[in-house]
Amino acid sequence: MGSVVIEDGKINNKAENSTSKVEEENLPMMKILDYLDDVMYYPILVVVLIAAGLYFTYRTRFLQLRMFKECISVLMEKPSKEGAISSFQALMVSTASRVGTGNIVGVSTALCLGGYGAVFWMWLIAIVGGATAFIESTLAQVYKRRDENGDSYGGPAYYIEIALHNKALATAFAVFLILTYAGGFNMLASYNLQSTFAVYSFYDKGVTPWIIGGILGVIVGYCLLGGGKRIVRFTEVLVPFMGVLYIAMAILVVLLNLNLIGDVLIKIFSDAFDFQKILGGIGGSCMMFGIKRGLYSNEAGVGSAPNAAAAADVSHPVQQGLVQMLSVFIDTVLCTATALMCLFSGIVPAKALAGAPYVQQASTSVFGSIGPVLITVAMVLFAFTTLIGNFFYVENCLAYLNHGIMPGKMTMMTVRILGAIVIFIGAGLSMAAAWDIADILMGFMCLINIPSCVVLGGIAIKAMEDYSAQKAQGKKPVFKAANIGMDTSSLEYWK
Fold first, then answer.
1. Biggest alpha carbon distance in the chain?
2. What's the rounded Cα separation, in Å, for the pair 446 and 277?
């Protein structure tokens, strides 16, 4: 892989984290992207995300804590039909998309650009976001559709059209999801992956990103076009192992630096509640970076996970709501692992270290030159599964736009080839452009999905109460839409 370049005990980061050539050439475009990003998140999405999360937390009576144990138990249930997607399989699909480069590079970027307090805001958006994830995934199950094989599918586009009777809004959501996951998120994952190679002696910022992007695009494209089944199976086995190893690395760093615990916690909470600093530079504050990077990582309210949730074969919609809520917390554990590994390394976060360099330097403090290699391996695996998982959501929304039918082979081949090209392009973007594009597209999805969930949330609440009532009676919960007062004429399940 090449030797890690360490100068004066620090990793030499040869990647451009400031202004890249691409950025310089498109400075007016960067100003537009920065402006849209800032306006969309403050005050609009800050208010929407936190208010909706708190509202759903109140309406579900703190479901995140009250029914956390139940989340684990429903994972063990098998589907009623042989060959159907189980709750656990749906969890793996959504987690594959959630757990990715954002858990490593996204967290590191938030710390370096936003400060210690970003950790608190990531925790907050995950805690309240768990309730939002429950609502959107339960709704996806309630309004899911049936294909010609008897299997289910669905997502926000479907419950917006069926329950809100708004085809135009549903179509807009599907389009933004395709742009976000096939475009913004995949470009960002590609950029984040190539940036971890900047510590190696062979890295040339003008050439290496394009080579890595090309290799990644070819491999992902090959897998999407029907090949590479062994590669996919290999990563499915290796990714959980790498996730556990990554958390173990973080725990070891923390244990070896326990003397810093008081200082770290004080800085996290003091920065998080330093509202004078936050309000003085809101766009670059710990709150903004914590919310942005937390949302990008856990995707609660974005409207992606409901597409996986709808595919699960369960006896009650609430089961998938609980499972997808659990996925948010799994993601947050990995984010916390990154944050603690960085902060307990004793290395102070700084703008010059934003992105992969901060995590790699933190790992070097304990593991030496092998640390950055392990981070690179983790990033390769996480990025690959994210890219593959993202296309599941894309294909689901392509089917929605095609009247519930998957487009023909030629169309799908074209989409997958274009997806591979996008991955290649993403590797050569600047850090600022990659994050801005992803943030803006993700923001549009939230602004459609979350208000829709607020309007329809009562259905999910009633379903939760029905589930709890059956559990209290010692029954295995089975859902009948009529039992909660729903009109079943527009439903294909739960009659």
1. 70
2. 27
User: Measuring CA to CA, which residue among 2, 295, 281 is closest to residue 121?
Assistant: 295
Give per-residue pLDDT as tens, 263-293.
999 999 999 888 776 665 565 678 888 888 8
Amino acid at 492: E
User: Quick one: pLDDT at residue 274?
Assistant: 82
- Whole-angstrom distance, CA of residue 55 vs CA of residue 222: 44
- CA-to-CA distance for 373 and 1, rounded, in angstroms? 8
Domains and CATH numbers, the chain: 6-486 (1.20.1740.10)
Q: What stretches in the chain show pLDDT beneath 70?
A: 1, 3-26, 82-84, 93, 95-99, 227-236, 239, 277-284
Round to whole Å and give the CA distance between 325 and 305: 10
- Give the count of alpha carbons within 13 A of 134, CB side only: 38
Angle at 237 (CA atoms; ends 231, 238), nearest 5 degrees? 85
pTM above 0.85? yes
Q: Is 275 helix (H, G, I), strand (E, B) or coil?
A: helix
DSSP string, 350-389: -GGGTTHHHHHHHHHHHHTTHHHHHHHHHHHHHHHHHHHH
- What CA–CA distance (Å, rounded) separates 335 from 299? 13
Residues in Cβ contact with 197 at an 8 Å cutoff, skipping those fewer than 6 apart: 203, 208, 212, 376
Give the DSSP letter string of 436-457. HHHHHHHHHHHHHHHHHHHHHH
**Residue type, position 148, single letter:** E
Length of the chain equals 495
Q: Specify the pLDDT at position 74.
A: 87
Q: 410 vs 173, 340, 373, 488, CA distance in Å?
A: 24, 47, 40, 37
Dist. CA 28–CA 21, nearest whole Å:
13
